[in-house]
Amino acid sequence: MGARVSVVTAVWNAREALKKTVASVAAMGGIDHVVVDGASSDGTPEYLGQTGTRWISEPDKGIADAMTKGIGMATGEYVLILQAGDLFAPGVTLDELEAELDGSDIVSFDVLVTHPDGDVRFLSRGLGAKLETSMSVPHQGAFVRRDLYDRIGAFEAQYKVGMDYEFMLRAKRAGASCKVVGRISSIMPADGISARRDWPSLQKRLAENRLIHSVHARGLRDRIVQKIYWSIYPLYKRLRHIGGRR
Asked: What is the pLDDT of residue 25?
């Protein structure tokens, strides 16, 4: 019987961080691990050749393209995205995780985001109202049925930061079911582009989210709400950033 869970990892020139992720996944046991390397020049392909993971190394169009390739290679019923440096939380077992996989399209756990100035627990809110304005399903804790990707597609390569947010909105519009599990499954270091707190990175995320909102607006009401939201929210985020609050 094959693995029930596949982990997909996209990496580019991050060999040392990748080693931590590969070790974490291997320690769980019984997981199909797929690594998609974007033709790294730091020795990543040579390292992968020494591991038991399934992997490819070739140029890609960015992280969304790499993750989509990995999903296409996955064999598990559920797929979890863990990037280089992401880890399973200490004490979590595969049996405990699989016990929560009840057939829902998405089974979403919380994620611990580690910042130099303190850790933050990213609470999963599922596909509810919060998702209409911001990401509420951390992808490092989201076990997604592979057949959901088959039904609605995977990640859109045009998005460089918000591809996971766009996917979750698309899943919601398609009527996907989502189970929220109120415990931490994974740890994410805050060095990825989606977790950066500097203002240029925040601006980039805001710009992509605004585009995603416009693409997924369901009519006049959504467009009016979005117009009001985007007339206020960027200023709010800027003031919080100036004040040292993220």
From this structure: 98
